[in-house]
Every structure is written in structure tokens, then in C-alpha cells.
Design brief:
The chain is α+β, with helices and mostly antiparallel strands and 353 residues long. Helices cover 22% and strands 29% of the residues.
Amino acid sequence: MLEEDIDNIFVKYVKEYQDINGTYVHVYEKPPTALEFLRTSVHPNRPAVIKGGFEHWPARTKWTNDYLRSKMGETVVTVAGKCFLFLFFKKKTNGILFFYTATPNGYADAVTYDPITDKEYFTMPHEEQMTFNSFIDLIEGKAVSANANYISLQNGSLPIEYSAIEKDVNQDIGWCNEALGKQPDAVNFWFGDDKSATSLHKDPYENCYAVIRGQKTFILYPPTEYYCMHESLYQNAIYVPNETTRKLELSPLESSTPWIPVNPLYPDFTKYPKFMHACPITVTVKEGEMLYLPALWFHQVMQKGDEGVIAVNYWYDMEYTNSLFPTMGLFRRLITGSMEGNRELLVDEEDSD
């Protein structure tokens, strides 16, 4: 009875937030002032779309594939990220290599079922090497790939790996800097196509996400809907190529990661019944628009663009003194740790030594 009472309490909590806030997303027709942004979006912890925020960036007109080839074609970069597809290449090109991540099903950093072991894993992508020019060939259909490809590094890739084009965008977002009282912790470069998608997850960052080419669709859920996410603890695995066939196979690791197994596009309510209480907020961010994605909001992302989708995002560290961060930790320990039996999550790292 106690667990049933807790379930009912969380459902009422989820519904109360939904009733108050609905699915409304504020749209700024022009970049906001710092005070307006703080009052309208940051303090309420609500997403927003900003129009006209970076029309002055040279990237808006310069970043054609030809221009990127001329600036980045032979540059060494390391690419890492989420939810990418494995590529097969018919040709090799001379020149300097960069890394891209790969999986056979379109999702990495995601929960994946392995029929060989009859088990679900939190799966990380395989990394390969190729030249930037070869990547553009794939985007333009000049080279053959089995699935899709995606460039991403989430640790400040733009100034570190893509310094040749970093001056084509602003190094920060002025009104966001002023509102948050800090500089971006990382500025990242993203380049992929419509076959690349991310699994449902959250980040401890205030995120300003600028779409420079194509469009991105975000499926969002507020932190109050943690109860609905069915987050659980999964053994980690990584994709590795078979030495004979070169097809990617799962290789289990010793570690584990808490992750969300639900795909909001095709939710299995029989397997994940709590998810039926979640209320998605779907936002399509068009070319030339920016999304403010508040810290700890759950999101899954799809993209579409004829010649590839390019975005730059600015990650600002969340304010850890805010009650939101420990509240999320409480949810994880109570729901995923205690109620769902993942006892490892009840032990703090400092207590496990």
C-alpha cells in the first residue's frame, strides 16, 4: 500500500505541474534583454525559442559545404557524441583523419537490446576515423554509407577542434551571459543528417542551441516528470567492429549507467506504464532560430535538412545551489534506487570507498 500511495502522490505532482504550465513555449521575436530572459525563462525553468538572435553571424551565410571543405577539409579533429549510425565506406582518401561515432541502429548513448545475450545495455558508440572531406561526401551522397553519420564533440569542440571556423559565430551569447552571470562552459559544433537522433536524456547545463542549417525537433519533458521516465541502471556496453565482417557488435563492460529506456516516438506503455502520465512538449527549431533548453529538462532530438544539419550550442553550467539539482537526486534515489530496486544508487560515491 505504501508504494501505491507514493505512486499516486507522484502522479498528482506531475499533473499539478502540467495543469499549471501546460505545453506553452515562449517565443521571443527578437533577442531578449538579460532581465526579460531571466524573468520569463530562467527563473521559471521553461524552454523558449529566440528568433533573430544570430543573423549577424558570418556562419549564417558562409557555412556552405564548399566553404567548410576549404576551411576544414584536412584538419585533424576528434568527434564524439550521442546516437549515431555506423557507416561503411567504399573509398579511402589521403589526408588527415578525424573521428566520428557509430552504431548500427541509429542510437548510441542509449538503451539497446542485445539478442545474443538477451539483455539490455546502456550502449556507447564506436569511434572511427575519416577525413572531413569524406564526411561531406557522405552528406552529399558522393560516398556510400549503410546508415548515417554525425559529427559531435560535447566538450567544447568549436574552439578546440574547429578553430578554423570558430570566428564565424559569437564566442558567447551576451544576454544569456548577463542573465546567468557566467560565460559558457563549452561551445559545441554539430553536423549530421536526418538519420541521426538522440535518445531521451537530460544535461546539467543551461543550453542555448542555435540551428544554422536545417531544422531540429526537440521532444521535451520537464524535470518534474522524472517519475514517468522509467530510468533504470544498465550495464554499459560499447559497439566494436567484428574482425571478420566489420559489422558492429555489442561488447559488454564492467561499469553501469542510469539511463532512460523509453522512446517517446514509439512508447511501449505495457512495458513502461508510468510514461503514459508524461506530457511531451514538441518544439521544431528552424534555421536561424535558437532554443533555450533549461538544465535537467529531458529531451530527444531529431533533425532534417537537405544538405545536412549544422548547429552550434552553448552550454552554461547549471546553478547547483538551486534546489532543482538535489531534488533530481532525491527522485533518482527514491524512485529508481529504492522503489525500483537499484540499490547501488542509494550509496554515495564518497560512502562506497
